Amino acid sequence: MIYRTFGKTGWDVSAVGLGTWNLGNQWGPVSDQAAADILLAAIDNGMNLLDAAESYGIPNGTSELRIGKTITPSRRDQLIIVSKVGNWGKRTGAGVPKTGVDSIRLCGHACLGRMKTDRIDVLLCHEGNIEDPAVYVEGFEALREEGFVREYGISTNSLDVLRAFYQMSDGACAVVEVDYSLINREPEDEFLDYCRQKNLGILVRGPLAKGVLSGKYGSDSVFTDTVREDWNEGKSDRADYEQMLDRLEVIKGIVGDESKLVETSLRYVISHQSNPVVIPGATKVAQVANNAEAGTELLDNTLYHRLNAMD
Fold first, then answer.
1. What is the CATH number of domain 3-211+266-308?
2. Cβ-contact 270, 2 below 8 angstroms
3. pLDDT tens profile 251-306
4. Could you tell me the residue ranges of all domains in the chain?
5. What is the pLDDT of residues 157-214, one digit of tens each?
6. What is the spatial distance between Cα 227 and Cα 171, in angstroms, rounded to a whole number?
7. How many CA atoms lie within 13 A of 222 on its CB side?
8. Residues 271, 217, 41, 274: what is their CA dihedral angle, to the nearest 10 degrees?
9. CA-to-CA distance for 202 and 251, rounded, in angstroms?
10. Is this structure's pTM higher than 0.70?
11. For burial by CB atoms within 10 Å, which of 63, 244, 267, 305 has the most?
């Protein structure tokens, strides 16, 4: 596994970590035992970063609870644990508004309790389009002063939102999480350059485009999970899904060997000069091992530039 300095935190972090959204049953049922096996496999395969959120799971908080059940104190000290607050109840239409500093503090303490830990290494604002992040910055600063949060930041795809959050924090913002993949390369335009300038630790969610870059899905696929169900025929996001499939065909033509799609997709992202850390999810131990293997080296330079040159 490649380890890299995680921005201004100075921490050594594995180039591939584990996203735990999949462990909360929103992508399909995952048993407690399967979730534990996946978490332990991540550690055994050299991953030292776990990414969670208060809203991950049916019910919300399930992913964090499973981390708390599995990660013992001795293993906890080997890990960087990231969580996020801001989207509790969003998918069920019962969102909990963050109206004051104490609401942020309470959410942070709830994350600590679910994960059975005395600290969260990175706590992120999960409202990616927030107009005024003051309540989050003040809440995160309070949690940091209390010793419960080491660093904080925001999960957003908007450079304007990131800039506002960074400025509001007087430069204390240390980490950003962004959607970036061979299918969604928009962050390459300006977003990642800004992160480099500010020496931010970069977490990349969606490096496999919600599974599209696995090559397992096509126009006849039917999605029963709550995350991708709107990709189905006649649903609201069908056109977006078909565009992703078109993009996939171009990528396949460059990669050649379809068995290398996942490896190539992950290596493409971690090979960016901004040194991102990818956090793909997994529903099987074998997927964890394959994802970890992708983190053992960067992408061949020639292939990287061929993919980078795609229109």
1. 3.20.20.100
2. yes
3. 999 999 989 999 999 999 999 999 999 999 999 999 999 999 999 999 999 999 99
4. 3-211+266-308
5. 999 999 999 999 999 999 999 999 999 999 999 999 999 999 999 999 999 999 999 9
6. 34
7. 1
8. 20
9. 24
10. yes
11. 63
